[in-house]
Fold this protein.
Amino acid sequence: MRQSAVDCSGRRSARLRRVLGVALAGALLASGVATADELKPFEASYAWIWNGMTVAVTTLKLAKSGADTWTYTSRSEPRGIGKLMSQRPRTESVLRVTPGGVEPLSYKGDDGTSSSQRSIDLKYDWNTHRVSGVYEQTPVDLPLTAQVQDDSSIQIALMVALLRGQTPDRFDLIDKDAVREYHYARAGEETLPTPLGALSAVIYTSRKANSPRVNSYWCAPEQGYLPLRVQQKRADEVEWTMEILSLKRE
């Protein structure tokens, strides 16, 4: 039997976290122009749907934590059949906004259990230009450049760049002890009914090199190009979908 998408203890949980990070990054890149004059706090929640059932709700929150530092968190709570699983995935990223862009300072994540199998603990040393730590039991020691981000900090790095009128052309994401690059393409437009009302969306797709999976993002211009929907397909099979439930912006 094919591994269930509600098995948050497996690779799907890590993949979901990574895809959502790239989804928001791609949404910001899709805008092409800034929609605000400065980085602002927000909180958004999404329903994670598998086989037509909502199995979890993920909440993302960006908060100011210092003069030039921010804390970005993600937490997921099971719903319906998802409650059969013990995992409650969560992440926390601390980052600094500088004239040169976003510098991640730390990134932590786990599945909400006592197991360390899916835990992430990364530290960024901008003096030695190395990122080190542990990513799901894999030791990490990588060169640190301005392009290197993690699943969480990449979202804010791209937002800051766009707010400054810049258009990033590359995604370098830490994936265990390596860095992966993602490529994007525009796929059309659609108006979606959402809890926020009917909203127009620009559809983008992304694919990691040599991956059979394609991710699609419905990005809303009226909401700063945050995604209204994220969907992953393998060939013609929909593996899972995420739909926006709520959004608060300051």
User: Anything to note?
Assistant: The radius of gyration is 17 Å. Residues 11-181 form one domain. The chain has two helices and 15 strands. Confidence is low (pLDDT under 50) at residues 1-11, 29-37.
